[in-house]
Amino acid sequence: MEEAAPSLCCLERVITVNDRSFNYSYSAEHRREIEQIKQKYIPREQAESSAERKLGQLKRLDASCESAAQLAGLLLGVGGVLIFGVGMCCILVWQLYLLGVLIAMIGIPMMIAAKPVYDRVLKERRAKAAPEIMRLTEELENGSPTE
């Protein structure tokens, strides 16, 4: 049995057995590419381990708490800014001073309330998700195989 020396780009071998030669080459780069393509066709349940699924679920729960609070705060803040802007337009463009001041005064408290609304929604969502997040973190830390 004879073997050739490997080249720099990939591992090439020639094996001779009973006067028959077999050539094959191996490249780690090609192997990675093949593995990436293979992963696309494996059902998601088989591709991910239990720990990976739990970690993904944990990240989604945490992100959902954050995104709900951001949405509430942004809607209130942007709505307040737009209403305030309409009030300013009434004053500066159309010279409707009284109406403009009243409209702008509606927008100001909305802008001010955006941060407290964000904080409250975040606190409520985290309190609601806390039991599930604590269960998942315990399972991940302890390496519990059950789901």
Task: For this entry, give a set of tags.
single chain; 147 residues; mainly alpha; two-stranded antiparallel ribbon
Number of helices: 4
N-to-C series of helices and strands: EEHHHH
Cross-sheet strand order for the largest sheet: 1-2
Please give the largest β-sheet. 2 strands, antiparallel
Query: Beta-strand level of the residues, as a percent range?
Result: 5-15%
Global geometry: elongated
Number of strands: 2
The radius of gyration is 31 Å
**What is the straight-line distance between the termini?**
51 Å
Oligomeric grouping of the chains: single chain
Structural class: mainly alpha
Describe the structure.
By secondary structure, this protein is mainly alpha-helical. The chain has 4 helices and 2 strands; from the N terminus they run ββαααα. A hairpin with a 2-residue loop joins strand 1 and strand 2 (20-26). Residues 1-8 have low confidence and may be disordered.
Précis, in short:
With 147 residues, the protein is mainly alpha-helical.
Helix and strand topology:
Blueprint: E1 11-17, E2 20-26, H1 28-41, H2 44-47, H3 50-92, H4 97-142
Antiparallel strand pairs: 1-2
Helix pairs in contact: 3-4
